[in-house]
Amino acid sequence: MQFSIGVEYALHSLFYMMEIPGGKRLGVKDIAQLHGVSETYLAKIFTKLKKGGIVRSVTGVKGGYELARTPEEISFWDVVEAIEGPSYMFQCAEIRQKNVLFADEYDPKIPPKCPCLIKVVMVEAENQMRNYLKDKSLQWLQDELYQDFSKEKQSKIRDWAGQAN
Fold first, then answer.
1. Is residue 97 pLDDT above 80, yes or no?
2. CATH says 5-162 is which class?
3. Of 29, 32, 75, 31, residue with least CA distance to 52
4. Among residues 48, 40, 38, 42, which one has the least CA distance to residue 83?
5. What is the predicted pLDDT for the residue at 100?
6. Residue 101's pLDDT band (cuts 50, 70, 90)
7. With left for phi above 0 and alpha for psi between -120 and 50, is residue 36 left, alpha or beta?
8. How far is CA 110 from CA 45, 49, 125, in A?
């Protein structure tokens, strides 16, 4: 299992956006420069974040992006789902129905009476991961990191965010 690098870019970008003063916004160019990543790729990520209701965009001279919800309301899972999509990672193709040893047990027109145990385990595991990530918010991230960040480091982040439009 592997999430795309877009999830990492999104989470790091959103972390810094939390410090933007009210009424101000950040452009993708500023965030891309901060992280040393491609502006084009980051713009695609922000399009997905906007579609997922995590950020909103404002056009014009003072335009850019801002969080669409409070940091407490944005979970890691919200970000993963916005970037990767809502589908489950494990896709059961019911190959057991094609097994030549038991071909006489399955009618392809009738669904099996019991679910595939492999699918059950995989979906259960993914649900546990989803629930864990739903319990971790952007606010939790900031609280955890700021416990270890020096006042100087916190100040650098706030100063950078304070330069927003």
1. no
2. mainly alpha
3. 75
4. 48
5. 78
6. confident
7. left
8. 42, 40, 27
